[in-house]
Amino acid sequence: MAVTAREIADELAEGIRSGERKPGARLPGEPALVRKHGVAKATAQRALTLLVTEGLAVQHKGSGTYVRDFQPIRRVANQRLSQERWGEGRSIWGADVGQRPMSVTDLRVYEAQAPDDVALLLDLEEGERVVIRDRLFTVESEPVQAAISYLPADLVRESAIAQEDTGPGGTYARLAELGVKPVRFVEELRARMPSHEESGRLHLTAGTPVVEIYRTALTEEGTPVEVNRMLLDAGAYVMEYRISG
Amino acid sequence: MAVTAREIADELAEGIRSGERKPGARLPGEPALVRKHGVAKATAQRALTLLVTEGLAVQHKGSGTYVRDFQPIRRVANQRLSQERWGEGRSIWGADVGQRPMSVTDLRVYEAQAPDDVALLLDLEEGERVVIRDRLFTVESEPVQAAISYLPADLVRESAIAQEDTGPGGTYARLAELGVKPVRFVEELRARMPSHEESGRLHLTAGTPVVEIYRTALTEEGTPVEVNRMLLDAGAYVMEYRISG
DNA sequence: AAGTGGTCTAGACCACTAG
DNA sequence: TAGTGGTCTAGACCACTTC
User: Fold this and answer.
1) The pTM of the whole model exceeds 0.85
2) pLDDT tens per residue, range A139-165
3) Domain B5-67, what fold?
4) Chain C: nucleotides under 7 Å from a protein CB?
5) Residues 6 to 25 of B: which have CB under 8 A from any A CB?
């Protein structure tokens, strides 16, 4: 009998998936759905909210609901970390962002006690201190990734790693100079919905998950020297890993 | 003035994140929130829905709303690489999850034309045919992953790969026998919200993203011989990749 | 039978956007 | 200023779970 929000959402979703409604196109608004299906405004709104939570649409208040545009950045893990790239003063970022320039904003560098999870990964004593590099990566004025690196403070305190500008080659070149060159990396990742705070920091629209990555950098001897915790806007990234059997 | 759904949700979320409300514990229901905050039932319900869409809670109709339990399966992509030197056991999420038995259900094997995306990855002519192995992986009676493999039909049609039972060593052992042993793999992955259909197939609760992985298997010569498209319940998995610089 | 979430109607007020 | 989404109240009926 009743037309449900689910049914209205499915009809619109079908139009989006089939390509009939193109990315960026405006979807019918609440009043239009009320007229067409004879439902209450709240039901029409719920239908649109369903599309948003399924990642198919974005809403701009005062303007309308639009088909979502997915134009991801490709993050190639192996390429980024390949040895040849470090020594040449080439930045890790920029290589795989394609044509779109990525910039670092809100960089903060400071020293503090290591959080428990990081202490575990870095094999630190309880309460040991770390140098923390906290930053936000932005593409076309939109934040796409928050990253926070932890390095043993006793190891890197005197190096450029503890400065805002780490110099040519970045953190990894400095670690190599300290005799703890990272040669292997472990990435642990999971996808989940962001907290309210994380949504705000990455300007996420509802229906966008985040990918949380912990990357541990290890020396030849297997000593962990850096942990980088990244939070990626899942709507902005595709990740690639190359594995040799 | 008014107490918003967001504020009620934040208060509950704080209790969950602090550990005060433990995984599996029951949260106050709609009537309790109505009494405590003096809001309408719909507002209380919206507060609980916010927690669900943020992945912090699950709802069981007729029973209640509960703090979500995250006990992930660890998927190590580089299974075949030596475990040494990568530092044992140091992991962020649930080192405990070792040997929960995983079973294959709903296996279907058939031949069809390759979809466009797969044809691209497999380097096939338009309309070329593939053998498709479609299956669901289940842990403790709950589906956690849907996987669908595509292999060039001309190559594998006569082998056990086209049978339900691929025999000892599975698909890769049969490919090796055919002289196209996969030795390298490329995995492309993204996280997104599931469609309504996908939610149903993987029994996902709202607020659970999926991880979509395309894995291409390549021979020594670089010829792609299999594409496996996996859809993982993001609430059930942690992924691990090991990268050598 | 009582309690819980699921969904809907009907109507209200607000804030933001666009022309 | 008209249209849009954002959020709320108030009340209704249903299906499911638990005891």
Assistant:
1) yes
2) 888 899 999 999 999 999 999 999 999
3) Arc Repressor Mutant, subunit A (1.10.10)
4) 3-12, 15-18
5) 6, 9-10, 13, 17
